[in-house]
Design a protein that fits this description.
A hairpin with a 6-residue loop joins β8 and β9. The strands form five sheets. The chain has an eight-stranded mixed beta sheet with strand order 4-3-5-6-7-8-9-13, with helices on both faces. Strands 10-11-12-14 form a four-stranded antiparallel beta sheet. The protein has eleven helices and 20 strands. The longest helix has 19 residues. Helix content is 30%, strand content 23%. 41% of the residues are buried. By secondary structure, it is α/β, with parallel strands linked by helices.
Length: 434
Amino acid sequence: MEYLHPELETMERAELEKYQLKRLKEVLEKVSKTPFYSKKFSEENIDIDSIKTLDDIRKLPFTTKNDLRENYPFGLSAIPMEQVVRLHSSSGTTGNPTVILHSQKDLDNWADAVARCLYMVGLRKSDVFQNSSGYGMFTGGLGFQYGAERLGALTVPAAAGNSKRQVKFIVDFGTTAIHAIPSYATRLAEVMQEEGYGVNAKPTKLKTLIIGAEPHSEEQRKRIEKLLGVKAYNSYGMSEMCGPGVAFECKEQNGMHIWEDYYIVEIIDPVTLEPVKEGEIGELVLTTLKRDAMPLIRYRTRDLTRILPGECLCGRTHKRIDRFKGRSDDMIILKGVNIFPIQIEKILMQFPELGNNYLITLETVGNNDEMTVEVELADLYSEDYNVLKGLSKEITRQLKDELLVTPLVKLANKGTLPQSEGKAVRVRDLRHIY
């Protein structure tokens, strides 16, 4: 096995937890001097000296996205602002944006984490890494850029959109690895085929795809791999934790290793806020251990996952988190049933007759809330009415078995549903909107 940071990636569990506890105490000492945490600890009678084990972290209060918004823009800074060298921010379309601050030390640690992830899936200095993420305030662009550069790969900062140009770069520059969100990866595969490249056409050097930023099913991943002829590895990150590089799949593709030298990991029940039993799905909570400018304590990510039991065959000792079920704040409640869009995608992707684009619409009809699932057909699929009726009926049956409610399924011609080169919009909730 090859590791970029072997002394950290393969650390024995007892040693790793000792390392985490030491770091946690240092972080608590630092944040206790910030206005936000000083006030929070005082209000809840928190004595940081009482934190003597990792389990004691449960004594500490949670931090939420709303805390970041209420303390906009620099209220959670733990260092003087003249030592801050960069900030990233959310769009803030529903109020104050969330602002994340970085020192140079933070940026170096971030680059190291992303480089570790890329190395883990086989990237080396000889690779050409093309990044189709947006740059600017979105962390996916610069995070992967600096990680690939730290690794020593030739980087192509292609940015988002302009699919024909993306394909030209892949061909002309000999791109071997590319980063894209799942919905855009399927669009890119379609454009490659239109341009005469890819599976069953003119070959490229592309072998590795990094996907993340959107929840996606295993079925969607397999479809992308088949379309592009690559191995697709799942990536997880969020701006509040720096960005990409929080967790990443290894070559075993059996869960994402979450770097425990950077984060303390908890899984809680999002309702009771208590820890769930080992292996159960709950909300991911993270405490930063290597953040200089803006450490966060017990940050509620709202992402739903679980810790996978057992050890990984790759030899890395850091915990693995499962593919995300969705976000606690993205959950659809329909007729008393909790539904996640990824459950619908999982069913749709099992039908080779269907394309990759779909849209879920929720509407109030009379006094009832109803769900419509529109999904595009694959290329050149039959136009025979009876064949399409049978397909629609089977999709409806499988969705009902999965969701416990019966949606209205509509089959659409390829290219007729809205396309996005950013994050795909999968749900329109029109209920009680007049």
